[in-house]
Each structure stands twice: as C-alpha cells, then as structure tokens.
What we know:
Strand order of the largest sheet: 3-4-5-6-7-8-9-10
Helix content: 40-55%
GO molecular function, one term: 4-hydroxy-tetrahydrodipicolinate synthase activity
Order of helices and strands: EHEHEHEHEHEHEHHEHEHEHHHHEHE
Radius of gyration: 23 Å
Pathway: Amino-acid biosynthesis; L-lysine biosynthesis via DAP pathway; (S)-tetrahydrodipicolinate from L-aspartate: step 3/4
Mean pLDDT: 91
Keywords: Amino-acid biosynthesis, Diaminopimelate biosynthesis, Lyase, Lysine biosynthesis, Schiff base
Number of strands: 12
Number of helices: 15
CATH architecture of the largest domain: Alpha-Beta Barrel
Distance between the termini: 35 Å
CATH topology of the largest domain: TIM Barrel
CATH class of the largest domain: Alpha Beta
Function: Catalyzes the condensation of (S)-aspartate-beta-semialdehyde [(S)-ASA] and pyruvate to 4-hydroxy-tetrahydrodipicolinate (HTPA).
Amino acid sequence: MAPQTALLSRGRTSGCCGAQRAQRRRQPAVTVQATLLPLPASETRSTVDRLKKLRLITAVKTPYLANGKFDLPAYDALVSRQIEKGVEGLIVGGTTGEGHLMSWDEHVMLIAHTVNAFGDKIAVIGNTGSNSTREALHATEQGFAVGMHASLQINPYYGKTSKAGLLNHFNAVLNEGPAIVYNVPGRTGQDIPDDVVLDICSHSNFLGMKECTGNPRIKNYTSKGVNCWSGNDDESHDARHTAGAVGVISVTSNVIPGLMHGLMAAPDAATNASLKELFSWLFCEPNPIALNTALAMCGLVRPVFRLPYVPLSRAQREKGAALLTAVQEHIPGCTGVRVMEDHEFILVGRH
C-alpha cells in the first residue's frame, strides 16, 4: 500500500491593531507530520512465506454473553486451548465466527483483541472481505491497522460481478496486504473461475485459496503452483496428503484441535475414518449451528445464539452427544457432555 501522509499545520497570521502583543502571547507555530509507511519488502515477503505454510487454521467460534455481547473470557479460553493443541492460525469473524452478524466496530475490535492477547503466539487472519469493494478495503485497512497478520477475502456475493469485476476486486484488496481468497459457491452463489485464480495468484500478497469445491479442484491448483487450504473438514486429510493442500481451515478444530493437528501433520487414515460421522454431524445444518450447539453441550460456551441461528433439535443433540462423548478426551476443557433442554438455550435478536 502506498505511503499515506497527513500534514496538519498552524502558522502565524498578521494582524493590525495590537498584533505584536497578540503574537507574543501565542504559542510558537506547530507543524505535525504523521506518516504511515508500508512494511519493508523483505519483511512483507517473510510474513507471506510464513503464512503460506500454516497447516491448521481454525475458523474460531465467537462466544456470547446472555445479552448477546461478546464473551471475551470464554473466547480467550477457547483460543488458549487452540494454541496449546497446535493450531497455528485463526480466522476471526469468519462464517463460523459469525462475522456477518457483527457490526464492523465489533468485528475490528475482536480482531484487535485477538492480536493484543495472542498475536505473538498464533497467526491472526481477519475476515474483512465484503461484497462491496469499498467496504472490504476500509475493513481490511482497519484490520491491518490493529495488527492482523492477514485477511480473508470473499468474492462479491448476492450482487455478483463479472470476471473483470472479480479481478479488480481481488487486486484491490490484495494491495492492502497478505490475504487468503475464499471460494465457497454454496454461500456466495458464484464460483471463482480457475482463470481468475491463476491470474491473482501472481500477486505478491496472495497467500492461497481456501477452496470448498473439492479435492480434484485443489489438486489441479496445486499442480500449477497455487497454494491451497481445504475448506472441508471431511476432505481435509486427503487434501493435505494426496491433493497437495498445505492444510485446512477448519470448523471441527474448535472441538478437537489436537486430533485435527494430527491429521494435518501426518497421514492417519484410521483416525480420519473414525471422525467421519462427527464431521458429518457438525454440518447437518448450515454452519455454525451444530458447532455452536456442540460447544454449549460441552460446557465451553454459554448456550447463547444470535438469531437467525438456533440450536439443533433435541434428536440431533442426542446424536451429537454420543459422538462428542466418544471423543471427549480430545475436547480440551470439556468435563462432560450434556444433551441440554430446549429452555436452556437463549436466542438473541437485538444485541
């Protein structure tokens, strides 16, 4: 990003009657110059190279208090356990973290808090993308200003654009700093075409794709030198070890970070197979409904949902309780799994 300079100056002005006496009483002229300089190229390159190698990134859950505001002590405990179990990066305010249910003030505050509390221990990747390029640029500038290491950028959703529009949008946000580009057509309604990816991957700030369309697509990209993370937990083991992905941006690692770390560290077909039913259950409804329910059932967050999300049905909670109990020893901080009653959940429409 080009250097930005703000110059504020106040000088003396001449007067008529009594001007000399007035000038003697005035303070000396003050000139304030503030310059925001980009990182040196060598430091930026080093940061990009490190971020490209992250194997396990958690799309971290945002816990809430009963009034719907952020529960920062619960968030800090969750992040601390992620770090202890080998997670290398966090997506803050992503779909899983419900960034779309936050104001931008909340969003940037949570990024700043994460950087301040954990930025020396884990990579902080702020989800500052938007379907408005202006909004994405502003949020991304704010995220980098408070210290995030990289951003997550989505293609414009709902109000979709052309290939030329995608290229302009992504190049604009990539100019702000290191970024992962996120392709999830099931949510955006538009796939990012291969030729767009092959164009933007040459940008010096392009970290890679979070790709949710499957391992054949990932293998095609990695064979052409495009860095990729799987966006699908159930496919992530094979993406890492057979399709060439560097790792996964995971939802399941909120619950079992140590096991997900193991799946990314070395091939383990048996463990991967044993988790298939849990992976499936965590996506039995649109994410993050099942994850929010699971973390509440494990006693790791308060059972508070910002609408329009609501907890899983009792039948699904009973199924999930059995799956979670089977891996309870791998759920850090969990001392027991409860099905919970419907009345225990709090739904918040205004916060």
